[in-house]
Specification:
By secondary structure, the protein is mainly α. Helix content is about 75%, strand content about 0%. The chain has two helices and no strands. It has helices at about 5, 10-25. The longest helix has 15 residues, at about 10-25. The N and C termini lie far apart (about 20 Å).
Length: about 25
Amino acid sequence: MDPLIRFHPNPTKSCYLISRRAINSA
């Protein structure tokens, strides 16, 4: 998992970070 997500256990924040990474990776 990403260290950012580990630092932000908030599900909404995690989902947002994952979505951002997915868009950046695309």
